[in-house]
UniProtKB/TrEMBL annotation:
Domain of life (superkingdom): Bacteria
Family per similarity comment: Belongs to the vitamin uptake transporter (VUT/ECF) (TC 2.A.88) family. Q precursor transporter subfamily.
Protein name according to UniProt: Probable queuosine precursor transporter
Keyword Acetylation: no
Alphabetical keyword list: Cell inner membrane, Cell membrane, Membrane, Transmembrane, Transmembrane helix, Transport
InterPro entries for the chain: YhhQ (IPR003744)
Annotated compartments: Cell inner membrane
Organism this protein belongs to: Sphingomonas endophytica
TM annotation in the entry: 17-37, 57-76, 88-112, 132-155, 176-196, 202-222
Main location: membrane
Membrane topology label: Multi-pass membrane protein
Function, as annotated: Involved in the import of queuosine (Q) precursors, required for Q precursor salvage.
């Protein structure tokens, strides 16, 4: 099979699905931190909190981008193997760190005189973060995403190509627990460990089980279609 340039598809340096997923992955890495500035209610899921002695469940909105990161890296592991998925996670540090540096530069640059003071204050408040929050995000991203790929690939080695939904949901849930422990401990200190961490972990596990399985099937199907 040849592409429009009359080159064999096997000779391409990168497959279409890996190219597309890499771009998407980089975008989700950058937007996750911005979305995380808003806490969102989970509707009926929020009521699970009081049932186990916790406040109503809520999560930072960045979790939705992080779940898409989990789905994307798992789809890459399914289609291209653990080694390539690990490289994708590693390369994700590039847009993550560059976006942080650009944010710091923009915060330092003087605002235009005509910019509304209220808008400027809101921007600075939303985009500003303590060094511990930056550090927590970097460490939590690297370790949780690596753990997701590792668990997903290990389960694939045991189950073969079966139970894609189970492998994806299990890897996502466990990696999100680690993500919550690392980020909250580093960003807010041990004083934040307790109901906040428990609520975050419970919410992320529920979302992982509910959202990741259908998304992983969709993304793998898209990837196979792109590479066909």
């Amino acid at each position: 099979m040849e592409d429009p340039d009359h080159r064999p598809i096997a000779s391409r340096a990168i497959s279409p699905s890996l190219f597309a997923f890499s771009i998407f992955y980089g975008g989700m890495v950058c937007i996750a931190g911005v979305l995380g500035n808003k806490q969102v209610s989970l509707g009926p899921i929020s009521r699970l909190g009081p049932l186990v002695g916790l406040p109503p469940l809520a999560v930072e909105a960045g979790i939705f981008a992080f779940l898409l990161l989990v789905v994307t890296s798992s789809a890459v592991a399914e289609l291209h193997g653990q080694k390539i998925a690990g490289r994708l996670v590693l390369m994700g540090f590039v847009p993550l760190l560059v976006s942080m540096v650009l944010t710091l530069v923009v915060l330092v640059l003087p605002a235009a005189p005509e910019m509304d003071a209220g808008h400027l204050a809101a921007f600075n408040q939303m985009m500003g973060a303590t060094p511990w929050i930056w550090a927590g995000g970097i460490v939590a991203y690297g370790l949780s995403q690596t753990l997701n790929v590792t668990i997903f690939s290990w389960l694939k080695g045991r189950e073969g190509g079966k139970l894609l939904w189970f492998r994806a949901a299990t890897a996502s849930a466990l990696s999100q627990i680690v993500d919550s422990i690392l980020f909250i401990s580093i960003a807010f200190g041990l004083s934040a460990v307790g109901w906040l961490m428990a609520g975050q972990m419970l919410a992320k596990v529920v979302l992982s089980v509910a959202l990741v399985p259908p998304l992983i099937y969709a993304l793998v199907a898209i990837g196979r279609r792109l590479d066909a």
